[in-house]
């Protein structure tokens, strides 16, 4: 039996990853699984691993995609300003609404708007070039959840960067997030166009296995 490789790690292979989320710690206590970790050595938590209630893994990942040339502070500031703009725009819509039903439909939490936008922009398929008999076909193939999430967030960022010089990035990103959360906008249209292309090329789907 081959031992698991531990390439370039300061910890031996029998060290386990830390459980730094408070919710997961409570689940371990309730299920009594925490007893198994009593005498097992645990790795130290990384710098970006925190139990703060303000920490969000998806927002942190989105901030890393926004970042350029290692300017993490600037990227975090841009994302926070975009969330602030989302809050202001939604509050303005909320106060302008006359009916209670319309007010209930307006989401005021910018993180919820962000999560909805990312989910609505996730593609299910993508086109992959596959060469058969000297001809390259665009073959529709399913993609993983991780790749779908990556494409969704990258499309949102690229749509926000395609803006006029007079519009700042946080303002444009806020508009794109609100439109995508309502299943509208350019990013959702881009996903739908990709699905239409995959539907048009479904006759080439068998080239995935041939």
Structural account:
- The protein is 50% helix and 8% strand.
- The protein has 210 residues and is mainly α.
- Helix 3 (72-96) crosses helix 5 and helix 6 crosses helix 7 (169-181).
Architecture blueprint of SSEs:
Blueprint: H1 22-30, H2 57-66, H3 72-96, H4 100-105, H5 110-120, E1 125-132, E2 135-142, H6 145-161, H7 169-181, H8 186-200
Antiparallel strand pairs: 1-2
Helix pairs in contact: 2-3, 3-5, 3-7, 5-7, 6-7
Query: Can you tell me the residue ranges where pLDDT is under 50 for at least 5 consecutive residues?
Result: none
Estimate what percentage of residues fall within beta strands. Answer: 5-15%
The main β sheet shows up as: 2 strands, antiparallel
User: Could you tell me how far the N terminus lies from the C terminus, measured between alpha carbons in angstroms?
Assistant: 35 Å
The level of helicity is 40-55%
Which key features would you list for this structure?
210 residues; mainly alpha; 8 helices; globular
Short description:
Helices cover 50% and strands 8% of the residues. It is mainly alpha-helical and 210 residues long.
């Amino acid at each position: 039996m081959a031992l698991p490789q531990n390439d370039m790690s300061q910890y031996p292979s029998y060290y386990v990853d830390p459980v730094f989320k408070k919710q997961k710690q409570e689940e371990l206590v309730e299920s009594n699984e925490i007893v198994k970790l009593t005498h097992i050595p645990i790795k130290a938590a990384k710098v970006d691993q925190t139990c703060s209630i303000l920490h969000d893994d998806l927002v942190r990942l989105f901030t890393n995609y926004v970042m350029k040339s290692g300017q993490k502070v600037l990227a975090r500031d841009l994302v926070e300003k975009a969330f602030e703009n989302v809050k202001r725009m939604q509050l303005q819509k909320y106060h302008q609404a006359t009916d209670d039903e319309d007010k209930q439909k307006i989401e005021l939490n910018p993180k919820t708007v962000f999560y909805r936008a990312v989910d609505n922009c996730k593609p299910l398929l993508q086109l992959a070039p596959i060469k058969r008999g000297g001809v390259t076909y665009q073959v529709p193939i399913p993609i993983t959840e991780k790749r779908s999430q990556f494409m969704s967030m990258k499309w949102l960022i690229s749509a926000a960067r395609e803006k006029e010089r007079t519009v700042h990035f946080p303002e444009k990103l806020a508009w794109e997030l609100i439109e995508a959360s309502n299943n509208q906008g350019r990013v959702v249209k881009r996903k739908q166009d990709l699905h239409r292309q995959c539907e048009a090329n479904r006759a080439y789907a068998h080239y995935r296995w041939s």
